[in-house]
Each structure stands twice: as structure tokens, then as C-alpha cells.
Amino acid sequence: MTKDELRVLLEDVRHGRLEVDAALDRLKTLPYEDLGFAKVDHHRALRKGFPEVVFCQGKTTDQVVEIVQRLCGNNRTVLATRAAREVYEAVRAVFSDAVYSELARTIVVYRGERPQPKGNVLVMSAGTADLPVAEEAVVTAEVMGNHVRRCYDVGVAGIHRLLDKLDLIQWAHVIIVVAGMEGALASVVAGLAEQPVIAVPTSVGYGANFHGLAALLTMLNSCASGIGVVNIDNGFGAAALASAITRMIVGPE
Amino acid sequence: MTKDELRVLLEDVRHGRLEVDAALDRLKTLPYEDLGFAKVDHHRALRKGFPEVVFCQGKTTDQVVEIVQRLCGNNRTVLATRAAREVYEAVRAVFSDAVYSELARTIVVYRGERPQPKGNVLVMSAGTADLPVAEEAVVTAEVMGNHVRRCYDVGVAGIHRLLDKLDLIQWAHVIIVVAGMEGALASVVAGLAEQPVIAVPTSVGYGANFHGLAALLTMLNSCASGIGVVNIDNGFGAAALASAITRMIVGPE
Amino acid sequence: MTKDELRVLLEDVRHGRLEVDAALDRLKTLPYEDLGFAKVDHHRALRKGFPEVVFCQGKTTDQVVEIVQRLCGNNRTVLATRAAREVYEAVRAVFSDAVYSELARTIVVYRGERPQPKGNVLVMSAGTADLPVAEEAVVTAEVMGNHVRRCYDVGVAGIHRLLDKLDLIQWAHVIIVVAGMEGALASVVAGLAEQPVIAVPTSVGYGANFHGLAALLTMLNSCASGIGVVNIDNGFGAAALASAITRMIVGPE
Amino acid sequence: MTKDELRVLLEDVRHGRLEVDAALDRLKTLPYEDLGFAKVDHHRALRKGFPEVVFCQGKTTDQVVEIVQRLCGNNRTVLATRAAREVYEAVRAVFSDAVYSELARTIVVYRGERPQPKGNVLVMSAGTADLPVAEEAVVTAEVMGNHVRRCYDVGVAGIHRLLDKLDLIQWAHVIIVVAGMEGALASVVAGLAEQPVIAVPTSVGYGANFHGLAALLTMLNSCASGIGVVNIDNGFGAAALASAITRMIVGPE
Amino acid sequence: MTKDELRVLLEDVRHGRLEVDAALDRLKTLPYEDLGFAKVDHHRALRKGFPEVVFCQGKTTDQVVEIVQRLCGNNRTVLATRAAREVYEAVRAVFSDAVYSELARTIVVYRGERPQPKGNVLVMSAGTADLPVAEEAVVTAEVMGNHVRRCYDVGVAGIHRLLDKLDLIQWAHVIIVVAGMEGALASVVAGLAEQPVIAVPTSVGYGANFHGLAALLTMLNSCASGIGVVNIDNGFGAAALASAITRMIVGPE
Amino acid sequence: MTKDELRVLLEDVRHGRLEVDAALDRLKTLPYEDLGFAKVDHHRALRKGFPEVVFCQGKTTDQVVEIVQRLCGNNRTVLATRAAREVYEAVRAVFSDAVYSELARTIVVYRGERPQPKGNVLVMSAGTADLPVAEEAVVTAEVMGNHVRRCYDVGVAGIHRLLDKLDLIQWAHVIIVVAGMEGALASVVAGLAEQPVIAVPTSVGYGANFHGLAALLTMLNSCASGIGVVNIDNGFGAAALASAITRMIVGPE
Amino acid sequence: MTKDELRVLLEDVRHGRLEVDAALDRLKTLPYEDLGFAKVDHHRALRKGFPEVVFCQGKTTDQVVEIVQRLCGNNRTVLATRAAREVYEAVRAVFSDAVYSELARTIVVYRGERPQPKGNVLVMSAGTADLPVAEEAVVTAEVMGNHVRRCYDVGVAGIHRLLDKLDLIQWAHVIIVVAGMEGALASVVAGLAEQPVIAVPTSVGYGANFHGLAALLTMLNSCASGIGVVNIDNGFGAAALASAITRMIVGPE
Amino acid sequence: MTKDELRVLLEDVRHGRLEVDAALDRLKTLPYEDLGFAKVDHHRALRKGFPEVVFCQGKTTDQVVEIVQRLCGNNRTVLATRAAREVYEAVRAVFSDAVYSELARTIVVYRGERPQPKGNVLVMSAGTADLPVAEEAVVTAEVMGNHVRRCYDVGVAGIHRLLDKLDLIQWAHVIIVVAGMEGALASVVAGLAEQPVIAVPTSVGYGANFHGLAALLTMLNSCASGIGVVNIDNGFGAAALASAITRMIVGPE
Lengths: 253, 253, 253, 253, 253, 253, 253, 253
Fold this sequence. Notes:
The structure is a homooctamer.
Chain A: H1 3-14, H2 20-28, H3 30-34, H4 39-46, E1 52-55, H5 61-72, E2 78-81, H6 85-94, E3 99-101, E4 106-109, E5 119-125, H7 131-143, E6 146-151, H8 159-163, H9 166-171, E7 174-179, H10 185-192, E8 197-201, H11 213-220, E9 227-229, H12 235-250
Parallel strand pairs in A: 1-2, 5-6, 5-7, 7-8, 8-9
Antiparallel strand pairs in A: 2-4, 3-4
Helix pairs in contact in A: 5-6, 7-12
Protein name (chains A, B, C, D, E, F, G, H): PurE domain-containing protein
GO molecular function (chains A, B, C, D, E, F, G, H): hydrolase activity
Domain PurE (chains A, B, C, D, E, F, G, H): 119-251
């Protein structure tokens, strides 16, 4: 509610066009709903198909099913991450069209109109063991309305394979680099690309990897600029940030 | 060098239009120059005024001056970060038009045509002690061709001050949040905003802050999505990432 | 009391200059037994219904049952925390009126007179996965004689939901904030409230959360004042501290 | 602004008793000022003499002086912590009645009516080197309107000295325990006392103390209940929490 | 082999009482066997019944049985630590007189003459969950020839229970303090006792305990003197050190 | 492709001995294949039998089998590390001549000509629990064409056993020291030997070992020179580095 | 002693059934003052010359001088550790016979009768940079009544130098091993010696030494038994523990 | 002393050609001198010019000078590392031909015959701030008898510059990679090279670099094989390991 709208409301009250109680009702919700706080509900309603997200880890299967049901009731697409197969089975019992990715551990229940893909998101990773995180990013970025391409056969220990993918790099608006072990891939890619690079350290590794700490520190300390880092194994978060960027680039529809 | 250009070259050799040695010379530089590796030189040359950057920490004053001289020789704007006042004095002795920010510890020597500011970058911070990092981000974002606004009087312990700045938040294409202590500001801002948020933890604090580790972990673990994190105190890096994003949004000129 | 003074006292007793009871009174304050060390027994006996506590983790089911039996023999209410369901089954076999909370993992066996609830304790948390810790705090605070209210649907990434709960905040004498992930909720609540805030980091999260370290550091570094922090996942400890405070506020009965 | 006050305002507009613009002005500030967000201004104004606080570390002397001047202009007492002597000299040049504690590194400029001390706060510490932190707590607690007593000659390595102070412990509403090295004092005191204990680890120590980490962990892991922990060396924070508690106990005036 | 023995050997060679080859054989083993390197074999042979030790963790059941068999073949008592019940079953199949402690996870197979207990070792601990470590110390100290007493019902949160045990403390030559959580017991005991105190942090605890790190740091930073610390959960190591001390005190038999 | 070869190619084009398209084809692969990037393929092809390596951890059994099949198709020996028995069973179903080491958790499928062992690699370790890592090094070093000897019965706590092995030490070109617990063996060996020492910390230990961190730090801080350290438990990496060294010593065939 | 028992005792005194002295004897052991709490005063008074200790770090020069004066007033020898030269100068101005060790940073002011040295303490260290810590141990052990020998030219990287010192090792009752860098010396010495070994990690080193953490972890994880560890750089603590041991061995005079 | 020599000695004793006392004297030194322990003295004497090394950090200038004097007295080349300029000045006062490298902080005093350079060592680094460490490696490797080449203008953020240096890489027997920040260069180089790579993390960086920890972890976790890591900033250690390798390759002269 802008200042002008507020003035109109008050004028309406003054001239008897609006009852005090009605005005009260509208003003009561003012502090947050009209000030843009209720971002999720309002803005998202404008962008049809933008998903609601459920992080399944730490929730019981029953809790997840209940939340998914509530959210789908709003005719909104729902994305559930970190979902074990048994969670999917339970969700599918309710929503038979739920889509599961074993690798990404994601469930998607599409509702409403699906958005036209617009932004170009490239998801790169080096090792086979990083794929679950990379695929979580892929599924998320797609559900959020992006064209997504995968580039999974690269790694700094065989840098020539990376150099072969320069066209893919140029295609992207945003590049997500998923890497475990020492996580050096993000630096090398950011040195080759001008686009924003989102680095996702993974917990893949052992010993002095300390469950992803090594890759995390590598990425935070990159001597290449243009890199933003998200939490270890947070493929979803990387794709959400990528989508926040592509939304700006191609406009929010 | 595209495949077609390569074919032309070979045809020229075949028909004697190009000497073997001349062809050799051109092919010798093929592996990296023509494959787009030389990103900096080529692309940057197209965008006049995009700066070269010198990170002064760990370099002697003499080394910095020498590097700045070399870079300015290419008619390129130079940005030096983490520059103590004595470094600035030495640079100014050579480039009398060098601009110094005491707070940001930056030196800028403008050369060539200055770019038209295009992207909108909002730099937010909470505490007075975070200002050096915030200002480093401001100077960098400006030199890289963005409109920059500051929003320095906010903090989660007085959240009403933040709610007053919603218009500023809506203005921005990208928001940089600079925060020390517990670093919670990034989460709150990302909860209010749809734009990409770049979080910069600072080393401001004491005790269990562990020189910025507390704020870093807070930002990496944010329950709000759309946040990319850079290294502790890395105001430059945040602005470089912001510029990589706005460059995509508004086009590279 | 020096050795000489003690001798004089005994001589006085011997010669009838001092009554046995008077001597007893003076000796009663000799260190340890009469100096209040036996706090638990003495003071607690005065406040009927104040619970004895058994921390089950690391104890065998047999050990827990034996300890509960011994404590209940004193006609005292017993609270067992971190109790798995099988521990509860074993306790119920002995005390059929034992009350179990699956979520909080607590067993309560009420004995003696139950105290009149007096202090007002508000338990806030953000995520579904934090509920076990929050509920441990709820059960503990109730057993220790407090009115308890829950406020579980708040989080800094949707700050408007928090602002809706200001009346709850004003009701409380003490506020317990249970938060995992980045743990920023404590700062925001302490910025809104004047009451003491007890912050409980939880181990909910992954990656750079490091099993609750992120939330712990956030809370310790809060820029808001009036926050005391307890151990990660220590819902019991938060409620015990809250009860120590409300006991002072409303008087120890 | 309560719902009733809002209704009155609207009625006034309706009946022409209040101009639209005037109503607009009042409503404009509604979201935060009238919802209790502006806690500091409103509530504090009721309790005369409650201090404003300036954390000097990381601020220049000029910045501190400017902030103190602004705050004192509101006729409010100002407490500056972590203030070096030169900062004090600069403040005294403006406010000749500023009071400095060399040991606590605090400056106090009293303004307005001083509050009647009400709550009883006991500050305990073990070692000479912990005194700066303990004294910061003492000064803060006094300025915030508490009776404060010191108990500095205790330590777990000579536990008999502690047992001699049981009367002091019984006097207190809240006990602040300041301890470096291994920080075990908090556990022992909380085992003896029923009151809330606020534990302040200090960075006093060396080697495997890791700048206060040892004492911090000890306090967080205490097997005694009723302990809330604040940041390392945060004497101010402990006293602020203690004051939040005593304010509840004795009423906010 | 002492210098004198060496001289005798050479004289024997010189006078033909010893063949060169025989001398060679004896000298060949000189560097380590006769220079005291072979400490275990030589010295231990003097003290009948001193045990050989097998650390079972990380070894297969077969490996443990094989090692125990080999060692017992030398008519030496064998102590196996960190032994699961199935390991014991396998050992008992070979040595039917093997003694198992479920709590301490130790197996003892007595061989040869058992030593007369001499040193007095007191093992103290606070919590039920610390008992496995404490009992490992008890069994080890007994097998190594000490009188051992337990004092398991003490803890700093109820310090009066500790003060009741002063006679036990005075009885001991060496005191082993086993403590998890915050580990403060070691400081308190060392403040009361003049004897050497060996502190064993345990991994009992949760959250910011970090698997025993908290107790470890507490013990290393103790403000009481006369404390030596061993590894987390290393009950065996504490008893071995205690035995090294009592061996000096009472003489090696 | 050397400069000379490139000249020949161009001459061939010029004189019509090579078609433009054929030249194009060869040049297309130039940037990485001919510049030595494709190290694995080219160089390894020269040394028959040099293995391809599959790191099984984090890969499904199906993925491992598929990769092994693909690699063996090139008539190359394949070494799979961190392979559970079930992975071996699956591989053996395809390659009946696959060789499994239970202890080392390695699978080897020999193809092509086996290299003549040349370099001498000594693998030393102290404890039984370190054997899996040591054996991984042994198998790897053998497959990579080295003579390997084991020296497993040494440890700094019984240094005389080490001194007995000086001849083995002198035999080696490179020494791999595998050690858990405190990892001191590397320093002692490097103090005795002049050859390069490769130190492999293992995660064997408990408590303040922190999963191999203790041994890792010990090895990195060794006061003996000539030590290179690899990741915790990385027996493969140590042998690969040893092979890189022996390849230089004895020549690459 | 219960209240009833106390009453009986007093009645017995009153009626002459118990002598005053006998009653006194029984009461003497009542907790705290007569139960040995006042350990320092009582026991130490018996052993003339046993020092009082002042830890100077974190204290001002004035504070140190004042404490030393107070302690010397009791005719007790005073040992001040971590004392800078200026502290010594100030102490010497008051006590002209104060003895300073530049290397150990210790001040000793002898008062009363000096004890006859009894226990044999060997202080070993490897590097020149460890000497301040080693000398602090030497001075402390001497002041506490031990014969002390130094063995400073040993290190595991040149193990033959250590083997030359076996006679010194055999002479000692207790061995203090001071080592920085990787700290492996403690393990090697404990492998050679049967006596208790007290290991002192020092902060000597750089990089991954982390200010002594590497040596600390090495020592805690030693595979040799019979080692107790004290805090990093805590030469005093090692000597105090050594003295607690030798006191037991040779009797407390 | 070989077994044969020992036999000769005994025969000499038997036949009276050698006195018992003389034999005793020779045997007394047997344990270490003749067993090859005295590696430094014996072997080094064979290779003229191989340096003695003094690590200056933590030593006083006087101590360094004294040690250098003693070592040079043996006609041996001395290398002093971590030497401040004032240390050099003091050394030069005694040895006027001492050579100082300001950047590497090394002093070399050549004595005896200088070795013929044999091995080829390439020292690579990325940033200007890493040069002190890189140069320490260069000086050390040269003094130890290697040909050394520098390659300082490479970094993964501009990978094309690295690809230009493939000939240098091929020239080397061993490659030392010095890198701070995220330390990714080691992985990239090891991916391109077949030679052993020695990785030296440097403490260059800030924030989440944690004084070199980031680069250290990166290097330890490298997905490229053939990398050995040394301590942070340990340029000397890298060169010593490189020399141990080249000594094997080209033979020890």
C-alpha cells in the first residue's frame, strides 16, 4: 500500500465511502502484508508455477506429506528436497503424478501453469560422487523456470576436458560449479568465464577433507573473482540463487 | 579462431597466399589466444574503462607502484585495494590524479573512457566498524560501472530500522550485505528481498567470533534462499560478483 | 572458627557455661552440611513437587529405571530427558502413570503435590526439525512450575510472521529461542523484547553448520543484548535457567 | 497504537476532527513505531536514566565522541565500553563530568535522573587477570540500576575460599561468574546457588586455552543447571542480561 | 649389558674362554637388547606378572586371539582393552580362565605369579556414563599391581559430595579423575589434593562438548597445578601412567 | 605435436601432399591432445600396463562395474581402490581374473603387458590397524611397476625394532611411512634415511586424534626434512607419488 | 557426622564422658578448615621453603610487586613465572636478593630454610627455541626441591643423539619432555623409559603447527604409555606435577 | 661397522693385536655411529658442499651467529633460513662472504667445494605475495645442488598463462608449486605433469584462509595424484624433499 493508496483510503473514510470497520480491517494487516513483507504469497502468485519448497531432512514422512498437501492445495508447484525414496512413496500415494529423482533425492508435484524456461543455467561438476548435489541443483533450477545444461565430465586434474566445453560456458547466464575433494574447479571456471559463478562445495572426499570444509575454504579463498559460495552440499541453494539472478536478467515475467 | 578461419588459413597456405612460417606463427598462438582463454584482454578491451585490479596486501609499496604503472600504460583504469595511505602517497607521486578512499583503503586511477553506470547495487551494513569493508564494496561496484547506494544504519537488533528501507531494497538489482558480529542481517534481508543477495562476513567482533568465522557460518547456513557468500572482509569480491550479475542484467554494453 | 575457639566452646560446654543446644547451633554452621551445601535436599524439600532430573543418554535402560525408582521413593516428581521409547516402556512397567512425550523424548512421573504454575515462559522456534529440542524445553519448564506457551511458526527468513507475535512476547517473563541453521532468530527476538532471552542452538542443519556450531556462534555473537546461551540441543538447560529466573521473579513459593 | 486507538483515529477522520494529512502522518510511522518495535525510545523513556551504550572497539575516537554527543543530547546517560584512555580524554574534553574506569575501560556520562538501585547482582571472578572483564560487568550493572557486589578472591583450585562466601551468594538475585583458564568456577557456583548464573568466559590463559575457547566450552557443557553463557570477554553482555532479569524481578520501576 | 660386562666379554675372548663367533652373536644384539632398549622384555621379566597389553579397537577378532595366544605363551599376564563381548567369547574359547569386564570392556588372562598390590590408586568419576572409562582405569591399575579404590558419586555441581571423600583422597598415592561434560572435577580435586592427579577427559556429553574436546581443554587449562592429562577416553593410559608413578614410589619390587 | 611436426604438416598442405580437410582434422585436436595435455592417453600408452584407477567410494557398484568395463576395453590394467567385497563380486562376474585384496580393499584387473618392476618402494607401518592403508599403498605401488617390501613391525614406542631394519631402509628408493595415532614414525624414519619419505597419516586412533588430524599435523610439522605428506588414509596417493619418483629415477622405460 | 551424633558428642563432653582434647580431635576433621581445605597454609607450613607462585602474565608490574611483597611477608620463598625483565627490575627494587633467569623468565626470592633436594627430575628438549619453556621447568623443579638435570641436545630427527643419553634417563625419577614442532620426542622417550614422562608441547613452530596444537595432539595420542600432558608452553605446570610425584617417591620430608 | 669389521676386531682382541681397553673404546660408540645413525656426519662428508641448515626463527641473533660459526668450522656450507636482515648483518660481521637474499630471508656461507648442479627443479608460484616462500625454495634447492628455474607468472584464474609454460614443466625432474589463497595451482599442475609435484601452501590470504589452512587442505585433497605436501610456508622443506628426490634420480655423486 503506497502513500497515495493510504491517502485515498483516508479520504474514503472521511467522505463516508468506507466504513470505519472496513478501513480498520484493511489497516490492521498493513504492517506486513502491504509493505511487501508477504513476499512469498503476493509476488509468487504473479509468477505462475513458481514452486514452494520443502526441505525433508529432519522431518518425518508424515510431516512432509502433510506439508506437501497443504501447499499443493494452493495450486502451487511443490519441490521437496533431500527426500528419501520412502518419503516419495508416501507422497505418491497422495499425488500420483509426483516426480521423483533418485539421484537428486527430489520430489516435484507440478500444479498450475508451468513457467516458460528463460534463464540459462549451466551445472558443472567433476566427479561421479558429486552427482546427487549437482542433480539437486539441476532439478531446482528447472522447476524455477530455467533452461539447464549439465557438464559433468570436467575436473582440474584433466584440464583439457574443461577447455573443450568453452561453448557451453558461453551459453550460460549463470554457472553452478559443484565440486568436492579440493574444490578447485570453481576457480578455474571463474577464471575462464565472465558470468556469475555459484560454487557448491560437496562433502565428497575423506580425511583432511573434513566433510567438505576443504572445498568450502578453497572456494571462499578463490583468487578468481565473480564467485559466490553456498553451504556444503547445498545444490538447492545454488539453484535458488541462480534463479534469483536469471529472474533479474530475463525479467520476472 | 573458428574452424572456418582455420580452413581459410590452410587454403591460403595451400595456394601459396601465405608463407609456411607466417602460418606457423599464427598457429603457434592458437591453443589459448584463439580459444577465448585470453578473456581479460579481449573482452575487456571491448568494454572501455573496466578496471584492472591490484590487491596491495602482501606487496611492497614499490611493487604496487610498478604494477599500477604497467597497467595504466594500457590506458586502463586501475583499482588498488587494501592500500595503506603510504601506498597511496607513492602512487600519487606518479599519478597525480589517483583518488584515495581512507575508509575503503582503495586507490583508483581512472584512464580511458568511463563506463555509463547501469546496474543498481545496494550496499547494506549494520555497524560502524563494518564500514571499511562496505566502502571497499561501494568503490569497487562504482568503478565497475554500477549505480551504488548505501544503507548503513540497519541491524537485526533494531529491525524496525530495516523495515524503513524497503524502497531502497526494491530499487536494487543486487544487494550486498556486509555484517560482522553474528552476521544475521543477510538472512533477514534475503527474507525480505527477491534479488540476489551477496553476503560479506566481516572480522568485526571478538571472542567466539573467531575473526569472522561466526558471521561466515551464519551466512552459509542461512535459512533464507538466494544468498551467495564471499570471503571474510572481501568487499571487493562481493562487488565483483555483483558486477558480474548486473553485467548480465543490463548487458555488457 | 579456629581450633582455639573450638576448644573454648567445648570447655564452655563441659563446664555448663554453654547449653548443648546453643553449642549445637554454633557448630551447625560449620562448613559443608550446615552451610547449605546440601542445597538439593533441603531447599527442594521446601518446594513440593520440584522435580529430580535424570539425563538418560549414555545410561542403560536398567540404570535409568533404577534411578527413577530410587528418586520416586522420596515422593518427588521425576523428569527423565533424552529418553528413548524403550526406556519409557521400562519405566512404565514400574510406574504405570509415567507420562511420555515422543517428540520431547521426556518421561515425567508426578509425585507429591504439583506446584502452582507461576512464571510465564515463551518457547519460540522456527523449524519443524527444531521441535524435539523446543518440546524438551516446554516439558521441563512446565514440570518446574511455569506457564508455558509455544510460538513455533516464526523464522527470520519470513520476519512478518514474527512481528505478528508481539503480544505473546509481551506476555512472557522469559523467552526461550530454539533455533538451528544459522540461529539468527535469537538476535531478532532479543531486539524486539526487553525480557531475558535464553538461546538454544540446535544441531539442525548440514554442511558448514557443523552440528550446531554455526547457530551457537551466531547466538554468542549477537549484537542484541540480553541473551544467555546454553549448549547445543540443550532444551532442558534452557528451561532450567528460565525456571531459575522465574523463581526469582515470582518468589520461591 | 492499539486497535482501539486506531479506531479513534479513523473516527476522528470520519467526523472531520482530524485532517487527512495529519492522519497520514501518524499512520505513516505506524508499522514499527506503534507496534512496539521502537522499544528503546518508548520504554526506556519511562525508566529515567537507563543508559545508551557505545561499543568503542573498532570505532575511531572521533566517531565515539560524535556518538556520545548525539546520545547525551537526548538527556540520557551514556555508557561507553572498551574505551581506551585516549578515547576517554577526548570525551572528557566535551563532557567534563565523564567518569572513567581504567580497569573496566568504561566511560560513563550521567544525564537525567539516576535510577534507584534495585536488583542485587554479584560479580565473581577468580584471577587478577580477569578483572577488566569483571569490572566491565560491575560498571554496566550499576549504571543499569543494580546493587553490585564483588567477590574476586575465589577459584576452584582453592575451593575453601569459595565456601566462605555463601552469604554473598545468598544475597544476590543474579550471579555473574567471570572466569578464564578452564572456567570451572561457573559450574561450582551454579552447584551451590539456586539463582540464575551468567557465565562469562575470558580470554585469559595461554596455549590450549585458544583465547577463551576452553572456558567457553567448559561453561556451555556445565553439568550444573541454571547457567547462561555470553561471549568471551563480554562483561557488558553479562550485566545487560543480569539487568534484564533483575528488571523482571523487581519490576521495571 | 653394562660396560663391565662388556669388558668381561672381551677378556673372555682374549683368553680364549669365548669363541669369536659366540662373542659375535652376543654383540650382534647389543645395540638394542643390551642397552636397555629392550625394556619390555628385560625389566618386565624381573617383575613377575606385569601384563602385556592388546588394544583391540581396529583389530579383527582373529588378530586379537592370535596376539593373546602368542603373548600368553611367554607365561605373561595379558590385558586386552576395548574388547567387545564377541572378542571375549573368542578368547575364552582358547583361555577358559579369561576374565571379562562388560563395563570396562577388558579381558584379562592371568599367567605367572600375580604381583603383590602396592601403590594406592584412587579412581574418581562423576557420571554414570563415564563408568566404562573409569572401569578401564580400575582394571588396568589392578592388573599392574596397585590397590584401587573407586569414588564414583562425586561431581562439581554437588560439591558437598566430594568433600565427604577427603579420607579417600588422602589414602591415594595417585588420583585418576575421569570426567566428561565440562571436566571441571579435575581442577577441584587437584585443588584439594597434594598427590599427582591424572585427568582423563571422556567423550561423554553432546553439542559443544565436541566428543570430549571441552573436557580435554578444561583439564589442560586447569588453574590447579599437579595435573597431567591423557587422551580422551584413555582410561588405560591414565592407569599406566599411575602405575609408572606408583612403581617409583613403592619401588619396582 | 612439436613445432617441427607442425611445419611438416604445413609443408605437406602447401605441396598438396595433405588435403585441407585432413589437416583440419589433425589441427582441430591440437589445443590439448598434441600439446601434452592428453597426458594419460599418450604417455601411458608408451608404458604398457600402467593402470587406470577407479576410486570406488561414493560410487554405486553399477557405476564401478561400468567404468571398469570401459577402461579394460582399452586393454589397460585397471586398479580399483576403496572397493568393498560386494563391488569385487560384481566386477568378478564380468572379469573372472580380477584380483581382490580384502585388507587393501583393492581390485586389480590386469590387461596388456605387465611392466618390469624397477623402483624399490618400502612401505612401513606401526600398528595392525594401519594395515589397510599400508596394503593399499603396496598394491598400488606394485601395479605401477615397483618392487615393494613391507616393514610392518616398527613403532617409535619400541624404537629398537626400527633400528633393526636399517638394511631395508637402505634398499629403498622411496619410503612410504603409514602411521596413525601420533604419527611420529615419519619423523624418526626421515631422520635415519636420506631417501624421499612419503608420510601417510591414518585415521587410526580415538579421542584427540580427531580422525587422523593429530597424525597429519605431526607429519606436516616434522623437524626432519625430506618428507612429503598426503591426505589421511590415502595409501593410493602415497604410492602414486612414490611411482612418480621412481619413474624419474629409473627412467620411464 | 549427623546433627544427632554431634549432639551426643557435646553431651559426652558436658558430662565428662569425653575429654575436650578428644572431642577436639574429632571435630578437627569436620569439613573445610580442619579437613585439609586449608591445604596450602597447613601442609606447606610443614615443608619449609616450598614456594608460593605468582603467574605474572596478565598482571601489571605493580600488581606483581604487591603480591610478592605480601607472600614474602610470610617468610615464604616466592617463584614468579612469565616475568618480563621490567617486572624483575621492579621486584629487585624491593628485594635486592631476587634471582632472575632471563631465559626462563622467572624470578625467585628465597625466604626461610631451603629444602634439601631429593627427587631427580630430568628435563629434555630438542630445539633451541624450546629453551624458555624447558628452563621454566628447570627453575620450578629446583625451587620445589628437586635435583634437576638438563638434556637439551636431542631430537627424533637425529635419534642417535638420544640413545647416547640412556644413563641420564635411568638417573631420573621423572622425565619432563619439552618439544615443539611435531612433538614426537615424548613418544620416543616414553618408549625407552619406565619412569613417568611429563610432556610439554611448546608453541614453537609455524604454519600447520597452529601455535602448539600439533605437538599437543601428538603427545595426547602417543602410542607409548606412561605419558601425562600439560598445557602448551606450561613448563611450570610440568615441574609442579613432577614435584607432586617426587614428593610421593621420596616422602614429603 | 659391518659384521665383518666386528669379526676382525674380535680376532684382533683374541690374538692380542688389540688391547681390551682400545676395543672397549671402539665398541662403546658402536650402537649409533657404526649403525648408520650418524647419517649427517658420515654421508654428508662424502658429498662435499652439501649444506648444514640453521632455522633462525625463535633463535636470538647471538645464537645464530654462534651456530653458524661452529658449522662453518667444519668447512661446510651453511644455509640459514628465516633470517632477518639484522641476523645477516651479524653473520656478515664474522663471515664477510655471506650471501643474503632479502626476499627469501636466507643467508648462505659457502665453504668447501661447491657441488655440480644436477637435478632440475622448477619452482612455480602464482602471486607476488608468495615470492618469499618460493625464493626460499629456490635458494635451498640451488645450495643443495640443483638447477633451478622459476615460473612465477601463473595462476589458475588465468589458466592460459600456465598452458604457455608446458616446456618448463617438461624440463623439470621435480616441480615445487608454491600457492596461497585457495592453493588450486598444485592440482592443475599435477594434472598436466607426470613428475613428482611438491606443494607448498602459503599463509598468503585473509579471512577464511585461516593463515594457510585453506591452501593446505586444498593441496591435501587434490584429485590429481603425484602430490606431496609440506607445511605452510615451508619453502625450505619443499626444496629439501625435492633434493632428496633429485639425489636419487641423478645419483648422490
